[in-house]
C-alpha cells in the first residue's frame, strides 16, 4: 500500500534529523530476515543505543541531499531492500550491532555506511569498524595505560614495605 505525501515528508524529516545527529550509520540488506528476527535486531540495537529504520532508498537519498553534510555523499551502494542503523552516541555501534546480528543470521549482509562527517564507507570499511572496540572500551584502555605506572610504583613500594616488615618481625621474634 502506498503511503501519503504527508507521511513521506514526515519520514524524510525524521531521516534528515537522524542523519544530522548520527555519528555513524551502517546499511545492510535484510532480504530473507523474518519479522521476528527483525524485532530481535531492533531490541539488540535499542540496548546499544542504535536506531534501526527500514525505509525506501529514494526517501533516504532525498533526506541526504537536503542535508548540508551529506549533500555530496555517494549513494550508489543504496540498492535493494535495505535497513539503516543510526547512532548519535558512538561511531562504531551501528556497525557492531549489525555485524553481531549477521554472525547468527547470514541473510543480513552489510552493504555500506556513512560517517558523521558525510563520508561514504564501503562494506569492508563497515566490517572493519565493527571489529573495533567501542568508544567506552577505548577510553577505559587509555585510562588503564595512564594508571599503569602508578599501580606499578605502589606495588613495588608495598612489596618493599612488606619485606621490611617481615624482616623486622623476624628480628623481633629472635
What would you say about this model in short?
The chain is an alpha+beta fold and 174 residues long. The chain contains six helices and five strands; from the N terminus they run αβαβαβαββαα.
| Order of helix and strand elements from N to C terminus | HEHEHEHEEHH
Shape: elongated
Give unreliable regions as ranges: none
Kindly identify the CATH topology of the largest domain.
Alpha-Beta Plaits
Write down the domain tally. Answer: 2
* Cα gyration radius (Å): 25 Å
Descriptive overview:
The chain contains six helices and five strands; from the N terminus they run αβαβαβαββαα. By secondary structure, the protein is an alpha+beta fold. The protein has two domains: 5-132, 2-Layer Sandwich (Alpha-Beta Plaits), CATH 3.30.70; 133-174. It has a five-stranded antiparallel sheet, with helices on both faces. It is elongated, with a radius of gyration of 25 Å. The mean pLDDT is 85.
Which labels suit this protein?
Alpha-Beta Plaits; 5 strands; 5-stranded antiparallel β-sheet
Task: Please specify the SSE layout and strand pairing.
Layout: H1 5-21, E1 24-29, H2 35-47, E2 51-53, H3 57-66, E3 82-87, H4 93-104, E4 109-115, E5 120-122, H5 123-131, H6 135-173
Antiparallel strand pairs: 1-3, 1-4, 2-3, 4-5
Helix pairs in contact: 1-3, 4-5
Amino acid at each position: 500500500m502506498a503511503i501519503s505525501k504527508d507521511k513521506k515528508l514526515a519520514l524524510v524529516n525524521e531521516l534528515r534529523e537522524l542523519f544530522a545527529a548520527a555519528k555513524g550509520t551502517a546499511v545492510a540488506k535484510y532480504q530473507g530476515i523474518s519479522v521476528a528476527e527483525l524485532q530481535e535486531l531492533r531490541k539488540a540495537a535499542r540496548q546499544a543505543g542504535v536506531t534501526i529504520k527500514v525505509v525506501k532508498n529514494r526517501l533516504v537519498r532525498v533526506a541526504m541531499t537536503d542535508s548540508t553534510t551529506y549533500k555530496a555523499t555517494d549513494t550508489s551502494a543504496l540498492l535493494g531492500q535495505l535497513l539503516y542503523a543510526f547512532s548519535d552516541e558512538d561511531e562504531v555501534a551501528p556497525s557492531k550491532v549489525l555485524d553481531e546480528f549477521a554472525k547468527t543470521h547470514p541473510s543480513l549482509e552489510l552493504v555500506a555506511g556513512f560517517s558523521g562527517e558525510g563520508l561514504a564507507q564501503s562494506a569492508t570499511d563497515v566490517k572493519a569498524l565493527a571489529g573495533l572496540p567501542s568508544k567506552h572500551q577505548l577510553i577505559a584502555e587509555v585510562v588503564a595505560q595512564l594508571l599503569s605506572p602508578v599501580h606499578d610504583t605502589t606495588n613495588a613500594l608495598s612489596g618493599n614495605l612488606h619485606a621490611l616488615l617481615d624482616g623486622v618481625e623476624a628480628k623481633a621474634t629472635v
